[in-house]
Amino acid sequence: MNPSNETHQQQILPNVHNPLQFTIVLPHSDTNSNPNSSLSNPSNVNDLLTLGIPRKRRRGRPHDTLSSNQVYNLPPEFPNNHQTTQNSFGSNHFDRNPNIGSDQAAQVGVSDEIIVINKEATSEALIALTAGFPADVLTEEEIDAGVVSVVGGIEQVNYILIRNHIITKWRENVFNWVTKEMFLDVVPSHCSKLLDSAYNYLLSHGYINFGVSPLIKDKILAEANTKGNVIVIGAGLSGLAAARQLMTFGYKVTVLEGRKRPGGRVYTRKMEGGNKVAAADLGGSVLTGTHGNPLGILARQLSYPLHKIRDKCPLYRLDGTPVDSKTDTKVEIAFNQLLDKASKLRQLMGEVSQDVSLGAALETFWEVDNNSSNSEETSLFNWHLANLEYANAGLLSKLSLAFWDQDDPYDMGGDHCFLPGGNWRLVQALAENIPILYEKTVNSIRYSSDGVQVAVNGGQVFEGDIALCTVPLGVLKSGFIKFTPALPQRKLDGIKRLGFGLLNKVAMLFPNPFWGTDLDMFGHLSENPSTRGEFFLFYSYANVAGGPVLMALVAGEAARSFESMPPTDAVKRILRILRGIYSPQGIEVPEPIQTVCTRWGCDPFSLGSYSNVAVGSTGDDYDILAESVGDGKLFFAGEATTRRYPATMHGAFLSGLREAANIYHFDTNRALRGKIEKNPSKNAARELERREQVLELREVKGGDEMRLNYLIEKLGVKLIGRKGLGPGADDVISQIKAERSKSKPAVTVKSGTLKPKSAMKQKLVRKAKILRKNNNQSLPVKGVGGNDVEVKVGGGSVSGMTKLVVSESIPSVNMNVGEGLIGNFSSSASASDPPNVEGLGVGVASRDWDLVELDGEML
């Protein structure tokens, strides 16, 4: 049955135990589980020091290995205990400042003005870490938003402490709406602007006060038409998250959904018959990671329990007998070693690895390393390949060797879980009171400076100020929706490069759980590599569905051929496998009461399951898909628009919150611009003129050097805060990135794991700092106008030196562009206000002199 044809009937799903307090429901037989662990509010800080990373290679069968855990080391500037004295501001003054190391104290230039909110700075940093914030630096998004006037200074340290404290206090009670006033007693008055900055950023970007608790839902305005009209295309997790957030901001929202139900690829089907009723997740089913997962926060707000998926996963041979545990372990170790070899291979190959598939590398290594003709070991190896294809919803022969696992460093830590009763319970709560129009299939989107027009089947046209498109990547690839004007070629190329794979399921409701309730999954081997993904893994939903439901997964090449397989044939094959396993044990396998087969590849509203990094693609393509077009009129969200969390339910949800924030900020800047144009004053007109000059950068060709030259010599400005440039900033940045990608390889290889270009750039800058510190020497630096600039380093790193002497004459400018005050950019600049040149600013106030010629590459 096609999931897209199901009606809006999930309100009558079976009721599952609903405790008053949020916990993770753990099987009694699992002695290694921690019953006190919490998804969004870990009770033990030490548990967060080691966050279990659910690597893609183990998503279906998450064994604990050395490579499946990532240890997070916190910097020394966040202690729990220290000696303090009270200062005149009411904040704590350090005899010896433990919140910052001696080297860092020298860099920021102030060692005794760091505030102390409480004595739990380390634990609060860990909580913020689970929300995606580094412990001791700002995120690029925070820098873009201009949350502090100078990046890298004492102000940044205080901002981070305040930010972490706000996040922690809300996570302690996610049922409530936190306000700035709640923190006035603990944040010193001289840091009130930092409190405003941190609170406003966290609120507008959806890090606090989001979700479905009654107190938070009350904040959605009854007459939400104070800011404009937004049309959201798609009622999946991303569309629902964005709609709720936008309504909280005061927007009038209309959601257009082609199906007869909300949820998109998250679909819980009610199964019933023979006095049995159960709920089966036919789409997104597993909450991958428990620390900081926003879907866990929703479950906590609704007092829904979670069921930890137990690691036990026995494998069975073709004849139904269990695989020997020693052989199983031996092949699994060998398989993980092959993945490690593939990682080393891509390091050696460099950018050439972008044109090689992961499957080709793994199968070649297996043929070379496997000297045995043991057919069982080969079948086990193929099972692991099928598991990997399940994790990526794609054929290994099409996955990029270079970037298939580029999102692994961002995986949520903690357990994998099921939500008893199905994920529809979250969808239902998110959709409540959201104006959703069902069976509205969008076929065209027209966008211009005047607004947007969205046409649906039947000729009806919806008009609005802004549109947010959340349709799956498969639909974008099909070209079914016509965009006018056409999407930029850059975005079209990204859509084409990214992969969009397929995973299908067979849900079966039985009279009884004959397979037992002591495990949550088991696997079955196949002797044919082309069918290795056919019913290779079974999930038991007996403990979470309200009835005895067994789910068979179909991955890889088998998932595509399954789309044309008659359901009766599928049931016969599955029963043959199950009876081969359980009949020899004297266990009778009955006929299923009801069976449902998915066809996600044929579903016109998805045309597949979830995204992956295909050969020729990189993580940058996720960023490209997320870029807005039409001068802030058309935005994009969905799991295929987040490079950190693609192919996950929480990634889709977070992308919706992200785009709600982007819409809000773009619209706010546009309103400010219109206000200035309508009510010009002398100063306002000058500021507007300067903005127009900055936007001229989009016309400058020839790469970063030419743009930097134009910026400094022609305009004489230093950018701070992308939002301050107005809606045209993204176009400028896109051109910069496009120009850079033409002239430099997309991958830089060093020892260790493969790093994307942006991460490698930061690594090289840090290396340059160390050299300067150790050698105390003058370094030649490439000048933006072709001349040499001499940077004299006297005692410490660039960001810590007391004087920065530049031999090239640059005019002194003190001006205000957008949101932030631009400091002096002169021929003699202090360390507290160094000039910013990295990537034409891109919202970076400046951490160091980043325009450095190192190993022949402009950083």
TrEMBL record:
GO MF annotations, alphabetized: oxidoreductase activity
Region described as Disordered: spans on this chain: 26-103
Keyword check for Oxidoreductase: yes
InterPro entries documented for this protein: Amino_oxidase, FAD/NAD-bd_sf, Flavin_monoamine_oxidase, Homeodomain-like_sf, SWIRM, WH-like_DNA-bd_sf
Gene3D superfamilies given in the database record: 3.90.660.10, FAD/NAD(P)-binding domain, Winged helix-like DNA-binding domain superfamily/Winged helix DNA-binding domain
Biased composition (Low complexity): 29-48
Polar residues: compositionally biased ranges: 80-91
Domain SWIRM intervals: 118-219
GO biological process, one term: chromatin organization
Keyword field: Chromatin regulator, Oxidoreductase
Superkingdom of origin: Eukaryota
Assigned protein family: Belongs to the flavin monoamine oxidase family.
Protein name listed in UniProt: SWIRM domain-containing protein
